[in-house]
């Protein structure tokens, strides 16, 4: 069933939906899209549209001084929704700091995600609830974590037969970007995962820019070609094509969970906006380049496909826009209403159990706070 | 009526320029409707409105700069159109909640108070937190905690400033030039400022961009005033600039008057061939032992003065009036004062027990003293108890002068500039490094022959530093 790695072909990006909304047949990956019906297609569009609307609202909140920082994902919705929807709830996800769309597929609350960016929490959600790890602000730091988690999974699943692995086996999806691909941790993680045949799917969203460094400065070859060096299959996929991303990620997860080891996916996409709200891309990239990518927008091609095949009508989009605005309003309200936890709370989160040094420092802190004339107001 | 203050839209930005307003007073705005485009140090950014309502005031004109946390726009969420005059009803102004809203509407930038993000919260007079409250815990426990905290402090981030303070002397001895970031050095260079002349106010004594700018501003103010300086005198009421005498200037004046009119000064001068001193200094500079330590002829002079004072101890003394009559206190220690021009004026901090320092220790002490003085951080303790002083007027290119004795002392040595001059050696005129030493002495304590012997001894060392090895 699973084709050999060589058949996957790292050279040409896998594409199922063309930018003008035509669906292409694919000899390998059609088999991974058999269950995709009209409901699912509408769902993918909805996921992407809601994610984009959330991204917009969070950007606005940052501009209004309500978030310290925001990391926009506009343009990368298909790569995130397609890959996120390919996972099982029991799989474990290691995101970067930009995987808002993946978070949606894991049922992580958008509102909760803003705690981190509001600067009132080191995390914001319980990773154990949705198997969606904390956002990692340090580039590529999550990749060794992912390899370790994968190694633990393979220990746990040692001795399972093929059938059991296919049915109950778990895998890890490790997200990273083209910028992270040049970090040492990426290399180490891939070496370990391959040495231990860990069920890790390395999902790289190559959005072409590592802040202001263009991709061609970071690698002379498509990143996917590096996979061969580690001895794992590499797949290059059109990252703005939600169906292609879904199919290749499903293939990769199947490969990984069946005990065959890690897979590298390079999803070609484009960051339509800024790296973060503290960045201004007009300083380092050309308007022509942005204009060339604009028609490749993942939402446009799916909308075209849905409309041309009469899967949706105008009412669908109108309703969706209303729902999205409602969601955004709720997110805004929730975010503004989050209580700001006292700093003293942080001392509880250093060690699982009480620790004498931390206790001492807490006592010092409480007394320091109590020394202010206005103490009690915001201790 | 809600005032929206300019947020920090980047990471750590402090201000932004208004690029263009997208709304005008009286316009209705929706939540998230872009109302202004601003330009920050990092980027051009569109700001979406956080409120829906009617715009009642724009607080800055296009092109103006607004500081973060200062008012940008006022929006009436009730949707009331502003009064045609543009001035608010008194009741309306009172009803506004934010403190900034008490400002009058209309362009405010440049006239309103600057929001100070680093306003200190007022403290009660409870004890400092290094000693936890006794009531809260048994006393032993409390002091144990305090101990632990102070022990930990060195390794914890909370004690960064203390760490930095401790690191300062270490840094100073490792780095043989002033600390400044490359862009700041470049700025100084572009402005034609010798960065060594600028006083650093950074956390580690480094020179910041502001330091260079303020140095330049001061220089400009002085230089720019020069061409018109006399012109101002033409105005009848501006013929004299009056400055109140305060602070260091006042203290200096009193000390000089006290000294000049209580101690009868005798001043003597001697020209010295300091070529050997220059060679010696050059050798020290290259020596590994003195790596990272600033070495100058002043160091040799300081050593010479200490050496010569031991041979002529009456110069290291003071005249003390007592109820039983005057006494001369001759000191068996030397607190060597070095007169330093500082931003606060003339100060004479001294190196305590300078007689116990070897050449290297003395070099370090001189550096520290100068650095502290230039940074304006000389403490009163540093200036107390001096026994003999040096004034390095040569640093300003002056040959010599008649220095006034630092009160409480009986001798001062003025170190003139060292420059190459024609000098007769063995009947031949050759270029040599020549300096002039000046000395003033309190004739009540130091007689003429004694002061002459002292000056000759100091000069002999400058002529031949190897004599120090005796």
UniProtKB/TrEMBL annotation, chain A:
Gene3D superfamilies in the record, alphabetically?
3.40.50.970
EC class, as a word, reads oxidoreductase
Per the record, what are the reactions this protein catalyses?
N(6)-[(R)-lipoyl]-L-lysyl-[protein] + 3-methyl-2-oxobutanoate + H(+) = N(6)-[(R)-S(8)-2-methylpropanoyldihydrolipoyl]-L-lysyl-[protein] + CO2
What does the entry give for GO biological process? branched-chain amino acid catabolic process
Molecular function (GO) terms for this protein are: branched-chain 2-oxo acid dehydrogenase activity; magnesium ion binding
Q: Where is the signal peptide?
A: none
Task: Recite the UniProt keywords alphabetically.
Answer: Oxidoreductase, Pyruvate, Thiamine pyrophosphate
Q: Which domain of life is it from?
A: Bacteria
Which parts of the sequence belong to the Dehydrogenase E1 component domain?
46-327
Which cofactors must be present for this protein to function? thiamine diphosphate
Entry EC number(s): 1.2.4.4
| Cross-referenced CDD domains | TPP_E1_PDC_ADC_BCADC
InterPro entries in the record, alphabetically?
A: Alpha-ketoacid_DH_E1_comp, DH_E1, THDP-binding
Q: Kindly give the SUPFAM superfamilies that the UniProt entry links to this protein.
A: Thiamin diphosphate-binding fold (THDP-binding) (SSF52518)
This chain's function reads: The branched-chain alpha-keto dehydrogenase complex catalyzes the overall conversion of alpha-keto acids to acyl-CoA and CO(2). It contains multiple copies of three enzymatic components: branched-chain alpha-keto acid decarboxylase (E1), lipoamide acyltransferase (E2) and lipoamide dehydrogenase (E3).
Q: Which family does it belong to?
A: Belongs to the BCKDHA family.
State what protein this is by name: 2-oxoisovalerate dehydrogenase subunit alpha
Taxonomic source organism: Glutamicibacter soli
From TrEMBL, chain B:
Annotated region Disordered: the residues are 77-140
User: What EC number(s) does the entry state?
Assistant: 2.3.1.-
Pfam family, any one: 2-oxoacid_dh
**Peripheral subunit-binding (PSBD) domain ranges (all copies):** 179-216
Taxonomy, superkingdom: Bacteria
Q: Which Gene3D superfamilies match?
A: 2.40.50.100, Chloramphenicol acetyltransferase-like domain, E3-binding domain
Gene Ontology CC: one annotated term? cytoplasm
Q: Which cofactor does it need?
A: (R)-lipoate
- Which SUPFAM superfamilies would you find in this protein's record? CoA-dependent acyltransferases, Peripheral subunit-binding domain of 2-oxo acid dehydrogenase complex, Single hybrid motif
Sequence ranges of Low complexity compositional bias? 82-104
Molecular function (GO) terms listed? acetyltransferase activity; lipoic acid binding
Q: Spell out the family assignment given in the record's similarity comment.
A: Belongs to the 2-oxoacid dehydrogenase family.
Provide the protein name. Answer: Dihydrolipoamide acetyltransferase component of pyruvate dehydrogenase complex
Q: Which organism is it from?
A: Glutamicibacter soli
Q: What is the lineage of its organism?
A: Bacteria, Bacillati, Actinomycetota, Actinomycetes, Micrococcales
């Amino acid at each position: 069933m699973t084709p050999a790695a060589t058949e996957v072909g790292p050279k040409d990006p896998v594409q199922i939906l063309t930018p003008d909304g035509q669906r292409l047949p694919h000899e390998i990956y059609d088999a991974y899209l058999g269950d995709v019906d009209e409901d699912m297609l509408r769902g993918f569009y909805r996921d992407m549209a809601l994610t984009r609307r959330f991204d917009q609202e969070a950007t606005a909140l940052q501009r209004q001084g309500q978030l310290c920082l925001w990391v926009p994902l506009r343009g990368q919705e298909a790569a995130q929704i397609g890959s996120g929807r390919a996972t099982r709830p029991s799989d474990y996800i290691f995101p970067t700091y930009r995987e808002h769309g993946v978070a949606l597929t894991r049922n992580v609350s958008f509102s909760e995600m803003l705690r981190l960016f509001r600067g009132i929490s080191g995390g914001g959600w319980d990773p154990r609830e949705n198997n969606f790890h904390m956002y990692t602000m340090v580039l590529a730091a999550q990749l060794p974590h992912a390899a370790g988690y994968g190694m633990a999974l393979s220990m746990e699943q040692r001795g399972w037969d093929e059938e059991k692995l296919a049915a109950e086996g778990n895998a890890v999806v490790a997200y990273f970007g083209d910028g992270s691909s040049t970090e040492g941790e990426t290399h180490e993680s891939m070496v370990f995962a391959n040495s231990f045949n860990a069920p890790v799917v390395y999902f790289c969203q190559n959005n072409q820019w590592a802040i202001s460094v263009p991709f061609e400065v970071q690698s002379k070859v498509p990143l996917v070609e590096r996979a061969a060096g580690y001895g794992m299959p590499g797949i290059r996929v059109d990252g703005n094509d939600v169906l292609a991303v879904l199919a290749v990620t499903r293939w990769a997860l199947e490969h990984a969970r069946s005990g065959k080891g890690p897979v590298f996916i390079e999803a070609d996409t484009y960051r339509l906006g800024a790296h973060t709200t503290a960045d201004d891309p007009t300083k380092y990239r050309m308007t022509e380049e942005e204009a060339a990518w604009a028609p490749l927008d993942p939402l446009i091609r799916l909308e075209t496909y849905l409309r041309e095949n009469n899967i949706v009508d105008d009412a669908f989009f109108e309703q969706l826009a209303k729902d999205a605005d409602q969601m955004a309003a709720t997110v805004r309200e929730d975010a503004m209403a989050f209580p700001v936890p006292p700093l003293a709370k942080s001392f509880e989160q250093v060690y699982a159990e009480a620790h004498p040094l931390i206790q001492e420092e807490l006592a010092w802190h409480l007394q320091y706070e109590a020394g202010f004339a206005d103490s009690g107001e915001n201790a | 009526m809600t005032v929206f203050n300019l947020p920090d839209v980047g990471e750590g930005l402090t201000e932004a320029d208004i690029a263009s307003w997208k709304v005008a007073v009286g316009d209705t705005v929706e939540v998230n409707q872009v109302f202004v485009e601003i330009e920050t140090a990092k980027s051009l950014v569109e700001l979406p409105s956080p409120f829906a309502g009617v715009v009642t005031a724009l607080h800055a004109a296009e092109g103006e700069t607004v500081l973060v946390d200062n008012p940008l726009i006022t929006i009436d969420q009730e949707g009331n159109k502003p009064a045609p005059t543009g001035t608010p009803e008194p009741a309306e102004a009172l009803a506004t909640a934010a403190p900034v809203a008490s400002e009058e509407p209309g362009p405010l930038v440049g006239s309103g108070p600057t929001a100070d993000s680093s306003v200190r919260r007022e403290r009660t007079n409870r004890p400092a937190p290094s000693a936890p409250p006794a009531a809260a815990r048994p006393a032993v426990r409390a002091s144990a905690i305090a101990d632990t905290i102070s022990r930990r402090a060195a390794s914890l981030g909370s004690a960064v400033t203390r760490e930095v303070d401790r690191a300062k002397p270490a840094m100073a001895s490792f780095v043989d030039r002033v600390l400044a970031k490359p862009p700041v050095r470049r700025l100084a260079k572009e402005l034609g400022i010798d960065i060594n002349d600028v006083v650093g106010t950074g956390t580690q004594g480094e020179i910041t961009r502001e330091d260079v700018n303020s140095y330049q501003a001061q220089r400009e103010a002085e230089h720019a005033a020069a061409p018109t300086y006399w012109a101002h005198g033409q105005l009848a009421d501006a013929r004299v600039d009056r400055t109140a005498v305060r602070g260091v200037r006042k203290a200096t004046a009193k000390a000089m008057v006290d000294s000049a009119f209580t101690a009868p000064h005798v001043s003597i001068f001697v020209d010295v061939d300091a070529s050997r001193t220059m060679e010696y200094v050059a050798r020290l500079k290259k020596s590994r032992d003195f790596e990272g330590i600033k070495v100058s002829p002043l160091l040799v002079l300081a050593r010479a003065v200490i050496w010569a004072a031991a041979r002529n101890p009456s110069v290291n003394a003071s005249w003390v009036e007592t109820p039983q009559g005057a006494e001369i206190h001759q000191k068996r220690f030397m607190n060597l004062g070095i007169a330093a021009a500082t931003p606060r004026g003339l100060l004479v901090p001294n190196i305590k027990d300078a007689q116990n320092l070897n050449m290297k220790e003395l070099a370090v002490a001189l550096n520290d003293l100068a650095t502290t003085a230039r940074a304006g951080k000389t403490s009163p303790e540093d200036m107390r108890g001096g026994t003999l002083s040096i004034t390095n007027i040569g640093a300003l290119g002056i040959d010599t002068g008649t220095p006034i004795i630092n009160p409480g002392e009986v001798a001062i040595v003025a170190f003139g500039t060292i420059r190459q001059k024609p000098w007769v050696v063995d009947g031949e005129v050759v270029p040599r490094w020549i300096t002039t030493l000046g000395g003033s002495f309190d004739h009540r304590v130091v007689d003429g022959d004694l002061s002459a012997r002292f000056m000759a001894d100091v000069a002999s060392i400058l002529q031949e530093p190897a004599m120090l090895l005796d």
